[in-house]
């Protein structure tokens, strides 16, 4: 009976959370505010309502249940070409900025927060040093940031877990007095975290990619795609490497290879299911952040005055933002110098306004809060008080970076003239020209070889392709709809060859680096829709 009542209570809480996610996300879109911000604020307000079920945040649930699929989805959507192009900047942010933040927070805490010494400040810095891939991706894309800024933020937030995990291990070891870290030992541990996690993720990706060749069933493919991130994360953690980097590596690898082993119909099914899953999990994560305020306040209640806590939270959040901006400004100068003079790359240096936006967009999310809560209760005078203050300050940073920075970003990018452009991207437009020209050339060559009297079918398709090419080349998006049903029923094999030519050309453009993965996915979806449309049309 008790088990049944417990299950009923869990079902009620989950249902309530899902209703909150759906309702407030819809409201966020109506008022044109990024939905993570609305969901966090909604969770904050609802947490104080009477008779509201209390939903504590279990770090294990965050790290094991929520984190793997959300990181996998972010890695899947990331453009490998853009990641390689911005590798130096991303590396300096993902690794250098974490160390700079940890030392900066340790110094600040030791001198300005009386309840924290240098050791506790180091641990606090490790907790809040890493930006959140979930928060960065969700907010940055929804407000129309320039693509390069989004790519840098995504790459940084996906990679800095290894450095943050190492800093957290060292911080806990220091404050517990279990060991004294050395520079050489820390460096070797970081190498193992990074390369061990990447190797494990790639091995899992290679094995699953090989198995995918024998599967062509939507529901089965969806189950397999869900297994990959959890398997990669658990394998990475079991090997004491970075489970997050294992998930990221497998996600990038599987995304690149999905053009080979997914059929059009299966790809459409799996992508649609993952869109719904990531939205639901993202929504639950941000609501849960807001719901944690009562627990945070209960832990710190009576230990400090309200004014002291507010002052600590505001000042500490400002210090963290300033530390990021101070590091980011020279990083882009250094990166541009290295690429131009050492690597001989002709790169365009980012403008100061773009650099400032990168510095301003250092959002923390549920990972920082879960890391703070996962800090063990340390035996000794004042140590429980120290842990509770760390949790409170981490919560304050999350609120400030998510809500304040998230709300000001749209205004900021408009003021700086960085609002996203409407219409088709020039790279996508050129890719469409190349792909359509390849299809026209293929049809013209096939018409010359035709011996079945189907010249009129080739002429009809060539005319339609040329019409689409003229629409793209004329500077407008044009009518890019697929071929009509009547034509498909009369020329299925001819159209299939033309679409396959488009697909091969598109993949070759991606593989040669002429287009990014984001452009490929946009155009690939159109080809998938076209192919499934004619495959579903009976021949009469």
Automatic annotation (TrEMBL):
Task: Spell out where the chain crosses the membrane.
Answer: 6-26, 33-49, 61-80, 87-108, 120-140, 190-211, 276-297, 309-334, 355-375, 390-413
Protein keywords:
Antiport, Cell membrane, Ion transport, Membrane, Sodium, Sodium transport, Transmembrane, Transmembrane helix, Transport
Signal peptide annotation? none
Any keyword Cell membrane? yes
Name the predominant localization: membrane
Location in or out of the cell: Cell membrane
- Which Pfam families does the entry link to? Na_H_Exchanger
Q: Name any Gene Ontology BP term.
A: sodium ion import across plasma membrane
Gene Ontology MF annotations: potassium:proton antiporter activity; sodium:proton antiporter activity
GO cellular component, as recorded: plasma membrane
- Please list the residue ranges annotated as the Cation/H+ exchanger transmembrane domain: 17-413
Membrane topology term: Multi-pass membrane protein
What does it do?
Na(+)/H(+) antiporter that extrudes sodium in exchange for external protons.
Instruction: Describe the family membership recorded for this protein in Swiss-Prot or TrEMBL.
Output: Belongs to the monovalent cation:proton antiporter 1 (CPA1) transporter (TC 2.A.36) family.
- Protein name from the UniProt record: CPA1 family monovalent cation:H+ antiporter
The organism is: Tunturiibacter gelidiferens
């Amino acid at each position: 009976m008790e088990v049944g009542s417990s299950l009923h209570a869990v079902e009620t809480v989950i249902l309530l959370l899902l209703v909150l996610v759906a309702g407030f996300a819809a409201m966020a879109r109506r008022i044109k505010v990024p939905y993570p911000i609305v969901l966090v604020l909604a969770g904050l307000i609802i947490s104080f309502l009477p008779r509201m079920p209390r939903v504590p945040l279990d770090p294990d649930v965050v790290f094991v249940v929520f984190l793997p699929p959300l990181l996998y989805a972010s890695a899947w959507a990331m453009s490998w070409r853009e990641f390689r192009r911005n590798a130096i900047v991303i590396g300096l942010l993902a690794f250098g900025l974490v160390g700079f933040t940890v030392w900066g927070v340790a110094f600040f805490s030791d001198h300005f927060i009386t309840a924290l010494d240098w050791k506790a400040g180091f641990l606090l810095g490790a907790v809040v040093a890493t930006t959140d891939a979930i928060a960065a991706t969700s907010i940055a894309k929804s407000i129309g940031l320039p693509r390069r800024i989004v790519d840098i933020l995504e790459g940084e937030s996906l990679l800095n877990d290894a450095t943050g995990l190492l800093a957290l291990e060292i911080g806990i070891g220091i404050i517990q007095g279990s060991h004294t870290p050395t520079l050489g030992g820390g460096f070797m541990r970081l190498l193992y975290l990074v390369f061990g996690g990447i190797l494990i993720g790639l091995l899992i990706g290679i094995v699953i990619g090989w198995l995918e060749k024998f599967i062509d069933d939507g529901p089965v493919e969806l189950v397999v795609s869900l297994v990959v991130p959890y398997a990669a994360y658990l394998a990475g953690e079991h090997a004491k490497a970075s489970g997050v980097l294992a998930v990221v590596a497998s996600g990038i690898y599987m995304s690149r290879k999905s053009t080979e082993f997914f059929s059009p119909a299966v790809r459409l099914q799996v992508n649609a299911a993952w869109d719904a899953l990531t939205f639901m999990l993202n929504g639950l994560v941000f609501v849960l952040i807001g719901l944690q305020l009562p627990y945070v306040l209960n832990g710190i209640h009576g230990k400090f005055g309200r004014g002291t806590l507010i002052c600590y939270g505001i000042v500490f959040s400002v210090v963290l933002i300033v530390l990021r901006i101070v590091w980011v400004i020279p990083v882009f100068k250094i990166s541009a110098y290295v690429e131009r003079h050492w690597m001989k790359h002709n790169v365009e240096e980012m403008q100061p306004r773009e650099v400032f936006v990168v510095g301003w967009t250092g959002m923390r999310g549920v990972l920082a809060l879960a890391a703070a809560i996962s800090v063990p209760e340390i035996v000794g005078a004042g140590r429980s008080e120290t842990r509770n203050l760390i949790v409170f300050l981490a919560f304050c940073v999350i609120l400030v970076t998510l809500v304040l920075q998230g709300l000001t970003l749209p205004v900021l990018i408009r003021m700086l003239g960085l609002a996203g452009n409407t219409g088709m991207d020039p790279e996508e437009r050129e890719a469409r020209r190349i792909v359509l020209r390849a299809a026209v050339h293929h049809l013209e060559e096939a018409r010359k070889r035709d011996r079945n009297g189907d010249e009129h079918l080739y002429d009809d398709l060539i005319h339609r392709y040329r019409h689409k090419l003229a629409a793209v080349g004329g500077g407008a998006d044009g009518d890019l709809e697929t071929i009509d049903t009547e034509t498909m029923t009369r020329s299925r094999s001819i159209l299939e060859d033309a679409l396959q030519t488009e697909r091969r050309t598109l993949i070759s453009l991606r593989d040669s680096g002429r287009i990014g993965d984001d452009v490929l996915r946009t155009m690939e979806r159109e080809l998938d829709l076209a192919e499934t449309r004619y495959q579903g049309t009976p021949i009469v």
